[in-house]
Structures are given as structure tokens and as C-alpha cells.
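Chain A, query sequence.
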Amino acid sequence: MLELEFSTMGLRKELLDMIGEKGFINPTPIQVKTIPPAMKGNDIMGQARTGTGKTASYGIPILNQLQAGEGTRALVVCPTRELAVQVRNEIAFLGKRLRINVQAVYGGQSIEVQTRGLTKKPEILVATPGRLLDHIRRGNINLSRIRFLVLDEADEMLDMGFMPDIEQILTQCPLERQTFLFSATLPEEIQDLGRRFMNDPQIILIDDGQITVPIVEQRCYRVQSGRKVQALYNILDVEKPPVCLVFCRTKKWTDELAVRLRNRGYVADALHGDMSQRERDMVMQRFRNGELKVLIATDLASRGLDIDLVSHVINFDIPEDPDVYVHRIGRTARAGRTGIALTLVEPSQTRQLRLIEARIGKKIRYYDLPGQEAVIKSQQEILVKRLMKKAENPASRSLDLANRLLADGHNPVNMLAAALELLESGLELTTEVFSEKEIINSTTNEDYVHVELPVGKAQGMNIRKLVDYITHNTSLDTNSIGEVEVHSRSSYVEIPMQNMEEVYEAVAGMKPVSERISRSRTSPWKKTQKINSR
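Chain A, predicted structure.
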């Protein structure tokens, strides 16, 4: 059955043309199992996660049966704005030559703008539950002529508390309709919904092992408590993922890692629920167009995230729920592509890993973290690439200086080596981590703060020197200092909250150092502290 082709499914030529233009070659397993019975009018209850091609599995049969100009006949309900926009865009692309109008309505966008769009009577409406009901109450949307209804990521809507809204929406649709329900998991509540609101649905199951194992390379790394940040650095430096999604448990950690990775030279940003809708949209646009290479996200913020070309998913925090792991790694290996999923595992988290392995029916192999030698080699490769690019068009003053040094009889190899050493010291790179202590997060080290100090390698500082300076000039000892990182012009130090001002005063007396000592924007402290040098 897997040899089934789109051309043999009885699809309209205009739709087949757009399927080809989309780059679809052969149907995915969910499409093979869904499209033929859907074309016969059967209700479908499918268990398949994001990234399996399920949008096309219901979008194609719906598009094949709609005619332009007949008004709103299809409704797709999604849990999040992001998913609604992505579903709308994919279906609109496939229906372009059929002249099918697809509109999305969701929270966070002007309701007046959406109302104007609804006057054009789109054939397909994609909506989030709350905004859909808002439009219904305003009289902008009437569901009495709906022929096709889709509940996409139903388990997510259940988790987010949307079930009362979903039931209200279902009661406003005609009884004579074709219903599609897709969910990564099928808990009892979802099955009950199907029994009450669907007509003898055909159950379609896509085995998780079939989805995740052949196309996602899964690895895990043993990481000592408190070493996860350095482990992430080493992995990113050596793996060099083209597009990477990093999952964290807390909002604070997403911001923290985004700042640290940017300081290290990565194009990185955070995505979490405390961001405004506009901020989230801007981050997602940068990620989609390839400008953003590393996105650090929480599970809630990533719901509905549908990016085709994510090469790596990294579980910075291993999830408690094995199904969350399946959702996460499904963000790579989209629609048949290959991908890599990496998980950092602390000694106390082996039980969670075993639960995940039981869920996917596969042992996840442990790998050694990249060592210092591999990291340094990778960093040097980056440096050489930058150097070669700069050598294509060096500044005239630099050329003049180079020629003068050669004319003075200096050894060119020694001079180049010295220049490289100076360049390396100026890069935001470090392979040192001072403490085994876990860095700040939402559940541990509640009495610690993470501060940024404006002194670094450019001032001759390294981790040991900074720790020695703090212990000699404050009441702190080495056991009281958490993680320390030293970059070219700044450093990060984790210290007890009660000693914060003492450390600021001590560092303010350090020479050379800027008079301005500022707290990191990702620390719990939002204000800026200014201390005069003594």
C-alpha cells in the first residue's frame, strides 16, 4: 500500500499540479491511510503527531471536493495561533489553482481585520476555538452549512482546556458532515468526543516507532549536574546544526540560554509564553526564513510549531512526560526527512529516559560528549573561515601594517600565529566551567542570582582569576560560587543573592573595569545598578 501515488488517488489536475509544486513526491504513511477513505466520505480519527504530513492528509480530500464561490464549507479548528497560520498557508498553497479562498482567524490579530476578510466568504476557515466563538457571537460566522470539520491536535486542545469550547462549536455544525479528528495521543476524553460527535469513524494509527525511529537519529549524553550549559556549547560547536530547536523546561532558562548563545556568536533567540504575540511572531518569522539558527523554546510556546527544515532538536531539559518527548523530536524529520534528536541526561534523570524508551519501543544510545580537543578544533575551523573571508577584502590600513611588519623582517608565520591567538582571545568562546553546581532555574538555587560583570578576557581575566578575586575581596568562598563563564568583554557569575551588592562593590574596584556594573537582562533583577569605581 505504501507504493500508492497521488496520481492514482482520483485527484483533480489543478490539485495534483500544486502537490507537485509543493515538492511532495510520494504520500506519507498518514496520507496513504487517510486520503482514500476520506475521498469516500468516511469520518476519520487519526493518531499521528506533527510532522507526518497530516495537514495534507485532510486538506487534499477537502480541497478536491470544494468549488470556488460556494461559501464557507470547511472548518479546521487548531489549538494555537501558530498552527492555525501554518495550516492556513499550506492549504491555501495547495488550493491556489482551484481558486479556493482560505482564511485564518485567531487571537492576537485585529478582529476588525478578520471581519473584513470574512465578508469574502472563504471556502475554508481555519480558527482557534476562542476567536471562532467570538466571531460566532458577533454574527460574523455561521457554521450551519459546514460540510467538512477538522479538529487538529485534539489532545493539545484537551490539555489547554478547550474541550468545552470544542463541544460548543460541534453543536453548531450540521449533523450531516464529514469529520476529521487528529491527535498525537488518543486519551479516553478524545475517544469519548469521537463517539459522541463522529459517525462511525475509521481509526487510523501511525505507530510512533514507525514515525520516529527510522528517520530521527536519537542520541543521549550523560551530563554531570551543573554542566549542561557547557555540554550544549560543545554539542553546538561540533555538530554545527544548520537549524536547531532547543527545548527548556522554564521561561527563565529560554532567555538565559538565548543570551549566552548570542554572546558566544550564535544567532539565537527565545520563544516562551511571557512574550507578546508580536514578539513571538517576529521570532518565528526569523526562524522560518533561516535568519535565526538556534531557537530556545518552552513546550507550551512551541505548540503548533511547524518548521520544515529543523535539522536538530536538543532536549536541554529531559521531559517528564514521554509523550512530550515524542512531540518534541517530531519537530525535526518533517514529512519523511531525516533529523537528529539529542537529549542531555543528568544522573538523577535515568528513570525518565527509561520511560521514554518504553514509550517509543527503542533504546536510545549514549554517546560521549565532544571533548575539549574536538571543540577547539571546531572553533579554529570557524576562525579560519572568518579569516579567509576577511582576507578576500582586507582593510587598506591592515595591509599597510602587514607590509610594514614584513619589511621590518618579522617572521610571517610567527606574526600570523600571534594574530590568531589575539583573535581567539577576543571570541566569545570558552571550554571552562568552574562549578558543578546547577545553574539558576525555577526549582533550584532559588536564593542565587546570575549576574553579568563587564570584565573579561580582554582585561586579562579568566575563570580562575575571577573566582580568586571574588574570594579574596568578599566574604564568599569557592563553595559559595556557582557557575562562572568568562567571555571576551563580560563574565557571568552565579552568587548568593545576599552577597550580590558585596560582589558588585568588589568588582567595581577592579582595574581596568567599566564604572557601570549591570545586572544581566535575564536575571531576576530588572533594574540597572551603577557603582562608582573607587
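DSSP finds 20 helices and 17 strands in the chain. Residues 432-534 form a domain with the Alpha-Beta Plaits fold (CATH 3.30.70).
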